[in-house]
Design goal:
This protein has 7 helices and 7 strands, in the order E-H-E-H-E-H-E-H-E-H-E-H-H-E. It is an alpha/beta fold. It has a single domain, classed as NAD(P)-binding Rossmann-like Domain (Rossmann fold). Strands 3-2-1-4-5-6-7 form a 7-stranded parallel β-sheet, with helices on both faces. Helix 1 runs parallel beside helix 2, helix 1 crosses helix 7 and helix 3 runs parallel beside helix 4. The chain is globular, with a radius of gyration of 17 Å. The chain starts with 6 loop residues before the first strand and ends in a 5-residue tail after the last strand.
């Protein structure tokens, strides 16, 4: 598979899963746009790593939970590369171990702004600007399909994007654009699992996985790279579950 000559925009790509996806796309030959909100040093590290793979890369500071930030990100991408061919709506926020009875209005507003509103308008802008035969990939969570105590808020905030992706697959299909959602289970070494204090919770989740381990960022990045490729041109409107069998 090669993505040579393509331009890939990955939201929230200065660390964690977004970083792994962006560098995997760069390794396949895509020019890449590193998006970050606050951590410029982390973004610069990813930028250097991408350039070391022999591709062109830029970094753009933009809060993709806000429409003006999303538009600025696309503007910078098109100004630098002329077009965008691959969009990965990755940026999101986790909040787990919070029973529904304990959720505050502030919690609700924050997670739905980051996990629902943000990706919605990232995809809206993709529908307006992505090149024909492009690839749109959203990142969801298996908490949308596997009910667990304490993830009611997080899971519901992630549901909408998967549905929107299926609608966009219908709307953009005539242009040769595919739209798919990756539905990972818990990811080792990312999100809340970068904190050793969550190790007991991590072990409880591993016990739920038939293959006996959590996923890694590289597991998900490999799926994203395939969906971004020409070889995946017949796959669209799908939710690709990658959770080791938890579902």
């Amino acid at each position: 598979m090669t993505l040579k000559g393509k331009t890939a925009l990955v939201t929230g790509s200065s660390k964690g899963l977004g970083r792994a996806i962006l560098l995997r796309l760069a390794a396949q030959g895509a020019n890449v746009v590193v998006n970050y909100s606050r951590d410029e040093s982390a973004a610069n590290e990813v930028l250097d790593a991408a350039k070391a793979l022999g591709v062109q890369a830029i970094s753009v500071a933009a809060d993709v939970s806000q429409v003006d930030g999303i538009q600025r990100l696309y503007d910078a991408t098109v100004d630098e590369f002329g077009q965008v061919d691959i969009v990965v709506a990755n940026a999101g926020m986790e909040k787990v171990n919070v029973p529904v009875a304990d959720v505050t209005e502030e919690d609700f507003d924050l997670l739905f702004r980051v996990n629902t509103k943000g990706p919605y308008f990232v995809l809206r802008e993709a529908a307006r600007r992505i090149a024909d035969n492009g690839r749109i990939i959203t990142i969801s969570s298996n908490t949308t399909t596997v009910p667990q105590i304490g993830v009611g808020l997080y899971g519901t905030s992630k549901v909408a994007t998967g549905y929107l992706a299926r609608v966009l697959a219908l709307e953009l299909g005539p242009r040769g654009i595919t739209v798919n959602t990756i539905v990972p289970g818990p990811i080792d070494g990312a999100g809340i699992f970068t904190d050793p204090a969550n190790n007991d919770y991590k072990q409880s989740l591993i016990a739920m996985v038939p293959i006996g381990r959590l996923g890694t960022t590289e597991d998900v990045a490999a799926i994203a790279a395939f969906l971004a490729s020409d070889e995946a041109g017949l796959i669209t409107g799908q939710q690709i579950v990658a959770d080791g069998g938890m579902h």
